[in-house]
Amino acid sequence: MEQDLRMERMKELVRLLGEASRAYYQESREIMPNIEYDRLYDELLALEKDTGVQMAGSPTAKVGYEVLSELPKEAHPSPMLSLDKTKSVDELVSWLGDQEALLSWKMDGLTIVLTYRDGALFKAVTRGNGEIGEVITANARTFKNIPLSIAYRGELVLRGEAVIKYSDFNRINDDIEDEAGRYKNPRNLCAGSVRQLSSRITAERNVHFYAFTLVSAPDVDFGNSREKQLRWLEGQGFEAVYFERVTAGSLPGAVSGFASRIADNDLPSDGLVLTLDDIAYGASLGRTAKFPRDSIAFKWSDETRETVLREIEWSASRTGLINPVAVFDPVELEGTSVSRASVHNVSIVEALRLGVGDRITVYKANMIIPQIAENLTGSGSAAPPDRCPVCGGPTEIRQLLDVRTLHCVNPDCPAKKIKSFDLFVSRNALNINGLSEETLAKFIDRGFLKDLPDIFDLEGHMLEIVNMEGFGDKSYTKLISAIDAARETTPARLIYGLGIGGIGAANARLLCRAYGNDIDRLRHPVREELLAIDQIGDVLADAIAEYFADEKNQLMLDRILGEIHFAEEEKVSGTDLTGMTFVITGSLEHFSNRKELQELIESLGGKAAGSVSAKTTYLINNDTTSNSTKNKAAKALGIPIISEEEALRIIRGEK
Fold first, then answer.
1. What gap in Å lies between CA 385 and CA 393, rounded to an integer?
2. What is the extent of the structural domain holding 32?
3. Hey, which of 355-364, 405-414, 466-475 has the most confident mean pLDDT?
4. pLDDT at position 166, please?
5. 644-652 and 594-603 helices cross at what angle (nearest 10)?
6. What pLDDT is recorded for position 419?
7. Comparing C-alpha atoms, which of 96, 29, 451 is closest to residue 273?
8. In angstroms, rounded to a whole number, what is the distance separating the alpha carbons of residues 470 and 56?
9. Which of these, 308, 307, 279, 306, lies nearest to 292 by C-alpha position?
10. How far apart are CA 606 and CA 243, in angstroms?
11. Which of residues 457, 486, 515 is at a domain's end?
12. Residue 113 domain-assigned (yes or no)
C-alpha cells in the first residue's frame, strides 16, 4: 500500500514538474516559484532513490526543454548534460578535495553551442533538450559581443550562455506602457529573444554571450588547464564568464565574495559553478546518466523569513488582466525590508493555498526578486474576487494551457480607461503634459472622459476643472495649451497611442512607413499586406486586423481624426537609400545623437540596424581604424566602414 502511494506521488510530481518546465522553458512564463520547483524536484529524487524506479518523462532523466519552435533542429554530437547541485559550501569543499578549480557565475540565460570554421562563425545551436537543439546561427550573429571572425583557423567548438543584462531588461520593460505586457525576468526575455524567427528582433534585445566551456580546438596545447582554455578564448575575442581560481582553503571566502557582488551584478545568475581545472583528471571521473563529474553547481541557500500574509491585492491593467500581489508584514531579506511579492496568477495563488492571516515564508529569488517560498498555514481562503477591484464589474477566470488568470470583462472599466488614456497622452504618443494618471482618474471619475477623443473636449468642463483640488486658472490654461499643441501630430504617434496589442512606438513607425503614412489605408488593412512588412508576424497582423475590424474603434478613430491634423513631413533632400542598411556606432559630430541620424536615414528609405550582419551596407564610425567589436565584424564580412562625413556625402548624393 505504501509503495502504491509513493508511486502515485511520483507520477504527480513528474506531471507538476513537467508542466512547470514546459511553461518556463518553452513558453517563457512561470507557474510556480523556483524554490517550490527545487523542493518538488528533491522530493521526486528521494522517492526515485527509495523505490529504485524512474518514471518515463521524469525531469531527473531529462535536460532542458522539448523543442517545439519552427527553428531548424539539429542533434548534438554528444548529450549536453546539466550539473549536479548543492546548497552547502562544506559539500563544495569536500567535492573539490585537493584539486584546484574555477569558480564562476552560473548565469541565468540560454546555453548556446558555437562552431567556428576557417575563422568564421559557422553554426550556433541552442542546448534544447540536451540531445536536440535549435539552429539559431542568424540570431547569434546579432549578439552584441560575439566575434564573427577569429584568428584560429581550425574547427573551434565552445559553449556559453546567452543572457540579457538587467540594465537592458529594465530598459526594454520601461518602453512597454502596459504593466501586464512587461517581461517577468531577464531569462524569459532572453529565451524568447534568442529563439526568434526574425534575427532583427534578436538584435534589438542586446543579447550578450559569455563562454564557459571549450569543447574542442584541435592542435592547440592548453597545458591540461581549463583556465588556459578560457584565457585562450578571450584572446580569440570572446568574453568568458567571470571566474576565480580556488582551492579547498580559499573556496569558502570566494563563495562569500561572489555573494557580496550579487546586488551590483548586471548579469543575471542563479548560483555558481565549480569546475576542475585539471582537464584530464576531470575527464577520468566520467559522468552519470545526467551529470558530468568534473563540475558541480552551487545554488544559493535562500535567506527565508517567516511572516504573516495580510492582504492579496488584485491589480487591474489596461488589458483587463488582474494580477495578484501578496502584502505581508515587513521582513528583512538580503539587507532590505520587504513587504510585497508578486504571485503572478491565480494558478500560483491556488497552488500555495493562500489566505489572509496565513503564516508564510518569503525569500528573494536569486537574492533579488521577493517571492513566497511556502505557506505554513495553507488555509486556501483567498478566492479570486468575482468583482473587479476598480470598477466592481464582473470578473472571469480564463485558462491558457495550464495557467489560470483573472480578467475584468467590463469594457468600460476605469482601470482599462486610465491605462488607455495614459498611453494616448504619453511622450511617444500625443505627448500631452499635465495629464498624469492621477489627473486622468479624477477626470474619468467625474465623467469628463469616456473615450479617447473626449480629451479634446475638456474645455467644456472649464469651471469644474478650475475648481478641482490641485487645479486653478494657470494649471487649466497650461493643460488646454498642451492639448492644442498635441492636435498637430504624426500618423505614427497616433497609431501608437491607440494601444493596439503588441504595437509599440517602433512598430507604429514601421507600419506608417509601410503604408506611406496613409491612415485611411492602414485602418482597412489587408492581412497579406501586413505580413509582407518586416517584423510583422501572424500575432501582430491578427491584433491589427482585429482592432480595426471593431466598429467602435473605427468610430472613435473618426472622432480623433476630426480633432487633429498631421504635420506635413519635412521634405528631406538626399539620395534614395531604399535597400541600404546602416549601422551607427561611436560618437557623432553633426548630429546630437544616433537617433537623429537614424531618423534621417529612415526618412530617405534606408534602414538603421543595431548590429553588423551580412545585410549591412555600411558601418558608420568616426573612428574607422578602431579595434571595436563592430569594426571587427564589418572587416570580417567585407563591409565598408565609413566616417560620418562620408555617410553625409552618400546621403547628399555626392561622390
1. 10
2. 2-51
3. 355-364
4. 87
5. 20
6. 78
7. 96
8. 65
9. 279
10. 43
11. 486
12. yes
pLDDT of residue 250: 94
**How far apart are alpha carbons 17 and 24 in whole angstroms?**
10
Number of structural domains in the chain: 6
Helices 89-96 and 251-260 meet at what angle, rounded to 10?
Answer: 140
Alpha helices in 490-639 (DSSP H): 491-497, 505-514, 519-522, 527-531, 538-549, 551-561, 594-603, 629-637
Q: What is the pLDDT of residue 2?
A: 67
Arithmetic mean of pLDDT over the chain: 84
Please indicate, yes or no, whether residues 370 and 426 belong to a single structural domain of this protein: no
Query: Is pLDDT at 101 greater than 90 in this prediction?
Result: yes
Query: Mean per-residue pLDDT for 527-549?
Result: 82
Task: Give the CA radius of gyration of the chain.
Answer: 28
Instruction: Judge contact between 136 and 191, C-beta under 8 A.
Output: no
Residue 75's pLDDT is 86
Q: DSSP class of residue 32?
A: S
| Model pLDDT for residues 231-277, shown as the tens digit of each residue | 999 888 898 999 999 999 999 999 988 888 877 788 888 889 999 99
Neighbours of 276 (CB within 10 A): 23
CB 238 within 8 A of CB 158: yes
Give the other-Cβ count within 10 Å of 484's Cβ. 12
Residue 573 lies in a domain: no
Q: Give the span between the Cα atoms of 427 and 105, in whole angstroms.
A: 39
* Cα-based distances in Å from 393 to 300, 414, 449, 624: 44, 10, 19, 62
Active site residues: 106
Distances (CA, A) of 577 to 126, 581, 607, 652: 36, 8, 8, 10
**Three-class HEC string of 324-391:** EEEEEEEEEECCEEEEEEECCCHHHHHHCCCCCCCEEEEEEECCCEEEEEEECCCCCCCCCCCECCCC
Percentages of the chain per state (helix, strand, coil), in multiples of 5: 35, 20, 40
For strands 101-107 and 243-246, give the pairing.
Answer: antiparallel
Rounded Cα distance, 172 and 184, in Å: 12
Residues 377 and 399 reside in one and the same domain = yes
Task: Give a yes or no: residue 59 inside a domain.
Answer: no
pLDDT, tens digit, for every residue of 394-440? 999 988 766 788 998 887 777 777 878 888 998 888 989 888 888 88
